[in-house]
Amino acid sequence: MDKFSVEKYAVINRISETLHNLAGSKSILQELDQIKLTQHFSNQLLQNWSPAQVMSIPEDELKNIIEAVMLFEVLYELLEDLNLEEMEIFDAALSGK
Question: What pLDDT is attached to residue 67?
Answer without folding.
Answer: 84
